[in-house]
Structures are given as structure tokens and as C-alpha cells.
Amino acid sequence: MTDHFQDRHIGTDAAAQATMLAAVGYPTVDALVNAAVPPSIHVKPLDGSSIPAAASERDALAELRRLAGSNRVRRSMIGLGYYDTITPAVIKRNVLENPSWYTAYTPYQPEISQGRLEALINFQTMVSDLTGMATANASMLDEGTAVVEAMLLARRASGSASNVFLVDADALPQTKALLRTRAEAVGIDLREARWSSSGEAAYRDPADGFDTPSAAQPAFGALIQYPGASGRVWDPREVIAAVQAQGGVAVVAADLLALTLLASPGDLGADVAVGTSQRFGVPMGFGGPHAGYMAVRAGLERQLPGRLVGVSQDADGHPAYRLSLQAREQHIRREKATSNICTAQVLLAVMASMYAVYHGPHGLKRIAQSVNIRARLFARRVGVHGDYFDTVTVPVPGRAAAIVADAGERGILLHLVDDDTVSVSFDETSADGSLDAALDEIFGLDASTDGPVDGQSWPDSLTREGDYLTHPVFNTHRSETAMMRYLKYLADKDYALDRGMIPLGSCTMKLNAATEMEAVTWPEFAGLHPFAPESDVEGYLQLIGELQGWLAEVTGYDSVSLQPNAGSQGELAGLLAIRGYHRSRGDLERTVCLIPSSAHGTNAASAVLAGMRVVVVACDDLGNVDLDDLRVKVAEHAGDLAALMITYPSTHGVYEHEVRAICEAVHEAGGQVYVDGANLNALLGYARFGDFGGDVSHLNLHKTFCIPHGGGGPGVGPVAAKAHLAPFLPSHPMQQRDLIAGRSSSPDGVSRPHTVISAAPYGSPSILPISWAYVRMMGAEGLKAATGAAVLAANYVAVRLREHYPVLYAGDNGLVAHECILDLRPLKEATGIDNNDVAKRLIDYGFHAPTMSFPVPGTLMIEPTESEDLAEIDRFIDAMIAIKEEADAVAAGVWPADDNPLVHAPHTAQSVIEGEWNHAYSRELAVYPLRSLIRGKYWPPVRRVDNAYGDRNLVCACPPVEAFA
Amino acid sequence: MADPKTLQYTAEHEWVLVDGAVATVGITAYAAEKLGDIVFVDLPKAGSSVAEGKVVGEIESTKSVGELFAPVNGTVVEANDAVVASPELVNSDPFGEGWLIKVEYAELPALLSFDEYSKLTGE
Q: How far apart are CA A148 and CA A609, in angstroms?
């Protein structure tokens, strides 16, 4: 008999589902889901499908091998922000290919996340040390978006009244393209600048040529690329001082490897440093994923976007890490947030930080020196003088195209700057001289001129002074044995899917199957530069095209772009498409975005960044959009309505009955409907956004389509749209091919600038084989079966827990969607035990807590997904029931309100072993509330973490070793 | 610490203590409790003018952000540096050490009495 992947992916078999259906009261899964999903939106049978019948794991891998074989990996010397690098095998195997790292969730529950929090604080320390800045965050999506975020930070923090942001003419081309898209939407005026180290400048509007040097241009901020895209290294101190003298914020985009030798942005006086950590051991992957970074000088910490790890202490006063300054983020501040970015690139940031841990400061410096020496030897042979680190720009009058073609035939990719110029970038893989002979032939050089080089290839004022990465963590793990054990030591502190269920509502922590993960590290997928020639990436383009087609089909849309690197970016892309559509029709005043009060805060933050104004629509007591209030708001904004953003099923985990009427009301007023696809796992195969009124949606491949969460990234947030919005979906000036279906249907026939959302043309392609393999191995029927199993599991949990904890919301026939919200406010009222106590006590029982206080304060939201089996679901339910009994015992006076196993949870081994035990409950009950835990238990490394202490005493770098004594 | 019964209030959960032409402003114990552990306070500088009902500062907890509204028109004569250095004072002593700003004003708007405010919060 054939082994069906579907039966491996879905945790419950027919017998288990029969048991669960009996509890829920439905004869079949189909009957259950059809009763839960409003009949008006049930999907109609399709005429033919582009999704092939399910392949076995073996066959899917064989197909991926064929696709990989259609890619051609040549040695890249293209540069432009992407460099080949040697991923230490110990990091590849123990981090990138290790489910303990890649299946973890964002570390919101710090007590079960100390391992990756430590890895991230290593990342922050590495970045702040190398950039010379006070505080670094726990990564950005890529360098281009990091620059955009720095521009927005500069506008918030600057005292300047100017609306101008200056952009280095020698900035990376993809960064310039991203800045254009993002600045236009929020009304920032970009001006390109050519600077000299004496502080002189020439400026231009992007459209015109450069002016002659002029008086300093007032600006709220400036971007300096260091080294420049051309490879040029120059001293920007005078320029930075001039920008700051006018109240502007100076942003330096810096190469981390160069910074091991060059003066840091902090030394130069910069306010903000940004860039990428890709060349620290993370494969190019045809553009991503990689971890961007951002660091700021003292005084700007609170302006940082994204995640920031800090040091606090636990209930016993021991140091403990946790995410700090959470109140900056969009789930709290909504449209006033510092950024719409939620997720980071944790897995890739961990890899980059471990590259620094493994090589240490001396190893990194040695790598940088060998890269630089190789560039200098080449520059001498080719007769180029100048200041550079790793990239040599070579004048070849009239011969550039011929040279690039010749190099290509020899298996080397050079960058064609213009007809008369090429550039050659050296990296860790070419530092051994392995490409020198070929380069000599390409450029017709005489190798005999080689000899030792001395001095340096940059101005004296830019030579780095002082030590960096002096913390012991960067100076200890030199042997592979030590490195392997450090990675295991950290992984052991964390709770990921390889330990048990992570029932986080709205996060869809389903299986990330090993077969899906296989292709990620194949060289044909990992080793490609994002700007490699089209002929080198045919396999990738086919895979991307197929996946886009499949995603369009299952959502009922016409076109998909895979470029956005996170759900938040997909949201922004969708809203920008709506904006572009209205503007193309002359509807410049349509800028109001209606957002229900129950929406995720990211919706509001994204709307603001798309140049829209947020108007909140009320929800009723059941958590549904209040149709009357919606009609009032639509009428009020009939003339300026741009869009409604609605999540379906709702953030409250129910299928809103009136969704069609809601969409129609918006359309009648000339608005567009944005359906947030965060909860698509409750719909796939049963209903389609495009059928019931959606014009555009983002999906989360890291939720519904199996890309692992990586401990808080990578993500992929494709944006899918109806044909009329296709012309406005993300694309890229350097893309190999326009893969967006329906581009020719531009309503006005006008060609327009690319809408660019990510630095690389197709976002993070190296993880797309994961989602491709999932769809390929499930087939359309399997995807539908997964939805059914997920909805059944959530309803089973709701039915079994209902008598212990009220289930807050339900839709048609009293059913929930793929998740359910338990109301713990009555429990707190009755017993004093709150949802936080229950969440922390679940750790003692061996579980990751459900989502806390979202979307309703004082609640827990549970999403079991289709991948958990019945035994694990029952184990979770039984734990929840046992905890309820413990809370009841507190209310009954068995234990005091301030001394019981709930308020003291979680319990570490140390807390029950050391010293006298003076509590009202036993040590056994503290750590072994169930006998079954004795043989296999997850031990949290710290007790409950004090969030307030850490936010009041902000420390975001590695604490000294003595702190842990 | 001021006696809450003698203070005046706004519907935005600020208390106002009037002393001559200067009003001392803080947030109520109810508001501090709802915000949770306060970790950061952003206050207007002395000398800045404030307008009734406008946002002049922020009070940030580990899980939420509250806005500080000016209860009167006037000029800030002092901001409480102790609260900026130790935001937890707003939790531990909201009606005393946790005061936020002192505002010199010309005319006092209609404010709520203790009883009226208590009715508003239902406590």
C-alpha cells in the first residue's frame, strides 16, 4: 500500500476523528465544517485544477531535484549586498536543519525560550559591537527594509521640519527602489546626494541630473552606504556632522564583515546603523531569507522597530532574558506603532550570531583580511587604485558586456555597472584565490605581478581602533565539539514542536515536515545570487510560478506575488495595491481604511504606512463586525473610502455569517476589500476569499503552508489579488522575469514604477520549496482534509473544555473555526488565578501556553491545528482541567492566594531542590503534577520572568558571566 | 499623599490638585492599576504650553500605553523628574510621589468630583 503524506501530516486518523466527532455531535468532518462555515460562502466545484494529485514524499523530492537541476550555480562576484559565504557545517546541521531551532515560536513566553533569547542577545551584542552603537534589535527582514525603517525612525526622532530624506547616490540599487515605493506612500521627499569626504555635496531629484555642489540641503535624515555599492570607502564624518547640525538623523548602512577592519558607524558619529548579516554564514538563497539588522545610539532605543531582547530577572532574582519594550509594538500601539513589522528573521539571526561565536573576533578579522587582500591583489593586477574593502570597480571602455559574458562562460558572475564598467566582489569563498586564475584570463592580466601587499586600501582615518566581541561567548566555542554542545545546551532550554504541542491561537503551529525542509539547503537552491541571470534560475522561476498559481487557485484570486517577507509586508503590499488602483483611476482622495476593533494591531500600522487614515468599525458582543456601524462609517466616508480590512475567519475564531453583506456594503461605496489571510487554515478547500468578496489578501506561508516559524522568522507573506489589482502588486527593477499573472490588464495601459516591498525580487525564495512540497504532497483533497481536521480539533477542545472554562465566541450552530477563545476572567473573579498563572502553570505540565490576552484581555486562545494527534490533544485538555481544579482549590482555601502552585509557576529544578521547602503545596505537586511527567519532563531553566524590571532597567547586550554565578 | 476625596478628576483618569494658580496633575490609582507595571513616562518640558484635552505625554506599562491629557490650558511649570527616573512611583503612590506635572493656569474648566469620578469607574 502506498504511504500517503496526508496521513503523516494530519495527526488524527479515522478512528480518532470518529471519537472526536461523537463528542462534537456530527456524523462526518464534512458535515461539521459545512455547518460551521456559512452556506453562502461554500466553495463551488472548480472546472479543473492546476494542483496535481498528491505526490508521495519520495516523488515530490524527485520533482524538486529536477527543479533544482534546472538552476545553474555559478560563482557569484556580483556583490550588491549579497555575498557567498561558508556556512559552518556544525551550524547548518545543528541550527538550520535542527527542529529544536526551526520549529520554535516567537519567544513571547520567556520562561520556555531562554535558549533562543540568549542566541538573539548574542546577535544584538555582535551587531552593537561591530557597529559601535549602543543598542541593536533582534533583526530586521532584510537590508532594504531596514533602511526604510531607519528612514521612518529618522522622521520620528528628528527635530527637523524638513520633509527631505537624502539618499547616497552610491546606495544599493534595491535599497533605492524600496525607498522610492515606501517614501511615496507616506509623502517623504527623496533626494539623491553625491558626497565627498570634505563634506561637499551635490543633490538631485531622482528625475534630474546632479546639481553643482550647493549649500547644505535641509533634511530630516540621510542614508550613507558604507562601503558604497560601487565598493568605494570614504570618510563620511563631515557629512554626518553636517546632517546632524541641521537636526537630521544620520543613517549608515554598513557591511558587518568590513566593520571588523573599518571604523564603526558609531566612531563616525552615526545615529543609526543598518544592514544585513547574510555574509555571516547564511546562504544567499536567491535573495533570502537573511537577517537584516538595526542599531541605534543611546537615546533612540525606544524608537527601534521590531523585536528587542533584554535582560531581566526571574522570581528568584536570577538573570533571565525576555522581549523588552513590547509596548512599542503594533499589537499595543496599533496605528501609532514604531513599525508594522512584527516578525524578525530569528533563525537566520541565530545562524549569523553563531558564525560570530564560532569564528570569534580574530577569526572574523582573518576572514575580512583575506577577502580584502584578495581584492587588493586583483586591483593591483588590473591597475585600479582607490579606496575599497572587497569590491573593485574596473573601467573597461566598451568591453563590459563582453567581459561579463566571458566570465559567465568560465562560471563566474560579474556585475555589469554600465557599458564601460564592471565590478568584482570578493567574499569568503573566493578569499582562497580559487578564482584568481580565471579572473586573470578574463581581464588579460599577468599573474607574475603578484607579491605581498602592505598598508591598507582605505584612508588612515577609517582604520578600526579598539577591540570588539570581547564577551567570553565569542571567545570560547572554537572546537566543533564545544560549538555543537553550546548549540545543544541552548536548544535544551527551549520548548519547540519537537517537544510537544504549541497550541497558540492565530499562529497555526502545524507540522513542518522533514521532507518539506529537505531542499532548503541544496546548493542549487541555496547558492544563487538574487541578481543572477535569468538562465541560471529557471528551476526557481518554475517553482515560484507554480506555487503562485496554486495559491491563487485555493484563495479564489487571479494573481499572487511572493515577494513580501512577512505577513505585515504582505498587508502593506496589498494596501499599496489598493492605493495604486484608486490613484490610477484619479481617486486621489480615497484614503480611509476601515478596520474592525477586533483586528490585529498590525492592520492599523500597515494602513498608516500605505498612506491611509484608519477609521475603526465597532464589533458586537459576539466579536463580529457590527453591520450597522459599518454602514454608518461607509456612508460617512462614501467619498474617501479606500478599503476595509477584515480578517476571515475573524480574529475571534468564528466564521462571520454576514461576511458577504459586509463586502457588498464596501464595494457599493467604491471601496476595496482586504481580507487578512492569517486564519486561512480554517478555510482552505471549503471557501475562498476571492469568491465571497475579497479583492486582495495576504497569506502567511509560515502558518498555513508549513514554513517553520524559526523561533520568530523567517516568514513569507504572499499577496494575492483580483485581476484589477494585479498591475499594482509587488515587482522589482532587477527581477529576472515578471511572474505576476494578469499584468497586461492594467486599466489605463500606463507603465508605472515597480512597487517594491523586499530587497530581493522574489523575497525569500530558498524557503519556498517548503510550501511547494506541502501543496504537492497534499493535493487539493489533502489541503481540504487538513482544514477539516483543524476545525474538528478546535471544536473538540471547545466542547471538552466548555464546562470548565467558558468559550467566548461561537458562530453558526455554536461552532468555532480552527481556534477557540477560553474566557479566564470568571476564573480570576472566582479564584484570583488569572490567565497568566494558567499559562505559566501549563509549563509545569509540559506545555507551551496558548495565545494570551489576544484578541481579548484575560483570555487564552487555543489552536490545536490538524497535525496534533488525539492523545496529545487529550493530554492538553486534561492538563487544562487539572489546572482548573488547582484554581478551585485556591478559591476553596486549600492553599493561600499568594502561595499555591499556580502563582509560583513555573517551577525550576533548582527551586524545588535548593534550601528548605516552605510552601503550602508539595515539591512533587510543583514539578510533577501528573505522574506521567516523571519519565519525561521539560524543565524550564528560569522561573517567572519579571517584565517590568527589565523594561525599567534596559540591558540589551550579553550580561557578564558573573551575573549567572 | 493627597486625600483622593479632596481632589478633582477628569474622565481620562487624571486627578488635579489645585493650589493657587498651579494645578498638580497625576493619574488615578484606578488608571495605574489598569495599566499595570509602569515602565516609562514621557512628560512635557517645563515651560511648554498645554491645551485642555490634548495629549501631552505617555505612560507606558509592560503591556499597554496610556496617554496623558492636559486637564487645563496653561504652562507647565514643573515635570516630575523622579517619576521619569522611577516610573514605578506611579504604581506605588499615584496620588503622591507619582504626580506627573504642575501646570500654571488662568481658568479652571469643569472637573469631576471624587463621587462623580467614582461613579464613572464603578468603584
A: 11
Is A14 in CB contact (< 8 Å) with chain B?
Answer: no
Beta-carbon neighbour count of residue A663 at 10 Å?
A: 22
Q: Min CA distance, A958 vs chain B (Å)?
A: 22
The CATH T-level fold of domain B9-107 is: OB fold (Dihydrolipoamide Acetyltransferase, E2P) (2.40.50)
pLDDT, one tens digit per residue, over A505-542 is 999 999 999 999 999 999 999 999 999 999 999 999 99
Helices A14-24 and A870-891, axial angle in degrees (round to 10): 40
Residues 50-109 of B with CB under 8 A from A: 60-65, 86-88
Distance CA A623, CA A808 (A): 9
Task: Map out the domains of chain B as residue ranges.
Answer: 9-107
pTM for this prediction: 0.96
Q: Output b/e per residue, A763-783; b: 16+ Cβ within 10 A.
A: bbbbbbbbbbbbbbbbbbebb
Q: d(Cα A523, Cα A533) in Å, to the nearest integer?
A: 17
Is residue A249 within 8 A of residue A163, CB to CB? The reply is no
Looking at residue A9, its amino acid is H
What are the distances in angstroms from CA A432 to CA A259, A374, A436, A858? Answer: 20, 8, 9, 59
Task: Give the pLDDT of residue A671.
Answer: 97
For residue B37, the distance in angstroms to the closest alpha carbon of chain A comes to 6
List chain A residues with CB under 8 Å of B36: 948
- Distances in Å between the Cα of A525 and the Cα atoms of A69, A536, A767, A776, A942 are 10, 11, 9, 18, 39
| Residue A481 neighbours by CB under 8 Å, 6+ apart | none
Answer yes or no: is pLDDT of B97 > 60: yes
Nearest CB to B64; choose among A302, A327, A948:
A327
Beta bridge partners of A250: A222
